[in-house]
Amino acid sequence: MPELPEVESTRRGIRPHVLGRVVDQVLVREPRLRWLVTDDVVGRPRGQRVEGVERRGKYLLLQFPGDALMVHLGMSGSLRILNGWRPPGPHDHVDLVFEDGRLLRYTDPRRFGSMHWIPGPDLVHPLLDPLGPEPMSEAFSGGWMHRRSRGRRASVKSFIMDARTVVGVGNIYATEALFRAGIHPARAAGRIGAERYRRLAQAIRQVLSEAIAAGGTTLRDFVDGSGRPGYFRQDLRVYGRAGEPCRTCGSPIRQLRIGQRASCYCARCQR
DNA sequence: CCGGACGCCTGTCGGC
DNA sequence: TGCCGACAGGCGTCCG
Fold first, then answer.
1. Active site residue A157
2. For residue A1, what pLDDT is reported?
3. Residues paired with A263 in a beta bridge
4. Do A238 and A181 share a structural domain?
5. CA A220 – C1' B12 distance (Å)?
6. Which residue, A59, A64, A119, A227, has most beta carbons within 10 Å?
């Protein structure tokens, strides 16, 4: 499910409901996520107040005094605020129960997500360590991509989906950004010039901003912290539109596979 | 170092 | 109707 806009929509949805609340207990019904949920996730948050709800790439960070809880939604994960106890469904793996009876419930049918306790205030974790720049930060630019891509023969689509290049860009938004920038997804990253990378950086920022404003993209089951779907699906120009006419030029949208992922593009608009 | 394939899971959908 | 393969929003790991 979730790329940066969906994670950010989740962050904004849950933040007002969890900020300042004190954790009463953490219930882990199924610890077998992408990585085994360890005992510190169950034991350490108890009695602690949530002091911040942040995001780094596709990771959500619940900040406690001195420590943090790091959550990844994988392919099919979501977090929901419940105002009171409700019986959990088969994929409701973790509950953070607050002292006032509200809870934050983690649901993830495919269990590709994860939950880690990060001791200490500095957000040091091996999964965060290799991450590249945030797309909205100054550190991310066409120049950065251009320099980093010299000599690379991998496709530009794989290149921008690599979190070391830029965080938060998954299959949907890589596909959409390349369409907006007029770049063919299979083109070798190292054979794209500085000016086109400037356009691509702008396209990535633009498509992510618009998607956040729409509450993200719901393909099947994504909902934000309040249970609302995202409405960016109707604004997708190429993703999931193979065989349909290009909204710009009318020629049929084509699809190929890059790195085991479907890649839709317009052969006329993207070179 | 780089690039590509694999595997982890469950649910859904299309074709036969 | 039922079965079976393909596919799905991610990403660490392994291999050549």
1. no
2. 60
3. A256
4. yes
5. 10
6. A59
